[in-house]
Amino acid sequence: MRLSSIWSQPAAAIIVVIVAALWISFSSFAVVDDKPDTSAQTKLPPLRPGQILSERFTAPADNLSRIDIYLDLKAPKPNGKIIFDLTEADKNRMLPSGKTAVKREAVISAGDIDSFDGSGRFDFQPVPASAGKRFMIDVSFDSGGGAPLHLLGEADPEAGRWLSLDGHAQPGDLAISLYHSTGVAGLMARVRPFRPGGSGSDLFLIPVFLVGAGSFGWLLWQIAAPRSSRERPRNPAD
Amino acid sequence: MSISKIPSPKSQIRFFGPRFHRSLHSPLIPLVLLAAAMGILWAIASPPWRPNDETRHFGYVQYLSRNMSIPFPGLGWIGANIVASENRTNYYGQVGKKETSFPPDAKQVMASADPPLYYALMVPVDRASQGLSVEGQLYAVRLFGSVVIFVLLVAAAYKVAELVFPDAHYFQIGLPLLLIFHPQLLFVFTSVTNDGLVALLYTLLLYNLILMVKRGLSWRRVLAIGAVTGLGLLTKLSFLIALPLVFVMIAILLSRKKERRERWRLAPMGATALLLPVAICGWYFFRNRLYGNVLPQIPDPTKGLNFGRVDTSKLLTRTGFNDYIIDTFLGTFSWAPLPGAAFAWFKTAIELAAGGLGVSLLAGYWRRSWLTIRPWLALLMSSLVMVFFLAAAEFEVNVASAQGRYLFPVIVPFWSLFLAGLAGFVPPRWRPRATAALVAGFAVFGVWALMVQFMARVS
């Protein structure tokens, strides 16, 4: 066996371990903080082109980075663009004062709506120090003359939340999920509660992940490397 | 020449035999390590009671552990400590509720409609972890029960792949890797549920059936087929679908024997393969018969909830049932589905794989090296997947809501066809690297699904 072939599999394993370690070290994850209560869902009035549906809420954590809205999957499937604006709301007023410290925009196609749970995902640059601040999201719809957008809401409004359509107050809340951006430590912190011993800790999970990565690198080399006829194992079923 | 200068043969230097040294180079060791690592990560990442009906399955384990008697179908409540844990861990957080408040004496039926084998196997783990909290016991059963079964499934998948793809080492390793990075499979199989054991036993059955076709009937093979079928029926009733398969394959083998005397010689073996399961699991069904319920499947009042009250043909052609099954097969994690684009890509990949399989079979007709899988194996495996798919549709129409996990017993045939199909477009020389690229892409998807889509979103 040549020297290069002796070391090629361990080398492949080490390379995949290094890549995996770098990936988890430098990745950021959008972690959910607040989800809508799907057992108390309600249908909101249809959103037509030109109308704006607004919801005010308080961000539960720093680095607010993603908001999901939910469509009624039983309504006719819409076509067009869903436009999303996030602005920081004034502390004392229900609507933004116009002098906003934070503004984020995102556009998704109605075709990007998840066919399983009807969620539409708006990703934006994380808002630093967002915990406890009030924000307003404006959702509008450009259907190009097609069916209106049927969004889902929550029947029981939460404290501090407020919903309006073209500035007119509406009952309930817009159903939204709020996410914040965090590193791997913040992600791992979520799997700690209720796990026995240290099984939910970084010290256990990250080495397990790296052992898996090394094994995968080893296998990947075995798949890709060409085999000579002498090396090919004889199969009993041939 | 002094004694120290006499060259010693290599075998004298080695501490262990050549078989041990060969096994060090076997893909099985890194496959087992990787399967264990991914299984542990999924088992720990999944919050208590989140996977499908986990309270009901764990309640069964706890019942057996405490009472040492098998409950009658449909009877028996989960323990009060599990109900208290549902409140403590906010079981309804999965649907967005801020808190869960079951009354302490809430009656929740355990999974007593299922046969007892899986639960009985978990009893030693439950007893060994008695000192822990109920959540600690749950994680102990997940890690030392379900994850071990998942690792055995991966090893069994590798052995099947050796039979199905004898000339393609890249498929032999690639097939188990697809299982290891399949998000919904890991979510379900690393939880407390009998689904993993059913898939393991079904894979072992498939292994023995393929070996039977390749090597012919033998008493050893027949006993293995009968035992696996009997144990499968003692695990979950859906294993009944295996019985016609065993019958048909033995009938075909016997019918191919030209001499009548030869057929009569082998007939007792065929009969044994069909009667041994009855001997292994008959007592359980006889006991239920005495109680008054042979097949304890109680129709759910929510049947037809997802797609309206339609018959099977309309369900398959005029509703979103097919998409729903594929979505819940790939990754929906109990109310936290993957993004819609992932489902769309997966459906496209399945269509491509079906096309590739056709290309491979047609091209292989003229040039054998183009064949990625033998036609009879492709026919057997696609029939199995279709039978389970149709069974899921029947279940949806007649019993209760079906899910993609109902196809997991045929997970090895599914991924075998998928792999053989996608590689069917590629010339044989390029297949190792094409398989490596496919598997690497799927591994990235599997890890992304675990960390970005599951751990970050399921609280």
Task: Give an overview of the whole structure.
The complex is a heterodimer of chains A (238) and B (459). Chain A has 238 residues and is of the alpha+beta class. Helices cover 22% and strands 31% of the residues of chain A. Chain A has helices at residues 3-26, 184-189, 202-224, and strands spanning 29-34, 41-43, 53-58, 64-70, 81-88, 103-109, 119-127, 134-142, 152-154, 162-165, 168-170, 173-174, 176-182. A 6-stranded antiparallel beta sheet of chain A has the order 6-5-8-3-10-11, with no helix packed on it. In chain A, strands 1-13-4-7 form a 4-stranded antiparallel beta sheet. In chain A, strand 10 (162-165) and strand 11 (168-170) form a beta hairpin. In chain A, helix 1 (3-26) packs across helix 3 (202-224). The two termini of chain A are 26 Å apart. The relative contact order of chain A is 0.25. The model of chain A is unreliable at 229-238 (pLDDT under 50). Chain B has 459 residues and is mostly helical. Chain B has a domain at 24-193. Helices cover 66% and strands 0% of the residues of chain B. Chain B is globular and about 70 Å long. Chain B starts with 9 loop residues before the first helix and ends with a helix. The mean pLDDT of chain B is 89. Chains A and B meet through strand 1 and helix 3 of A and helix 3, helix 7, helix 8, helix 10 and helix 15 of B.
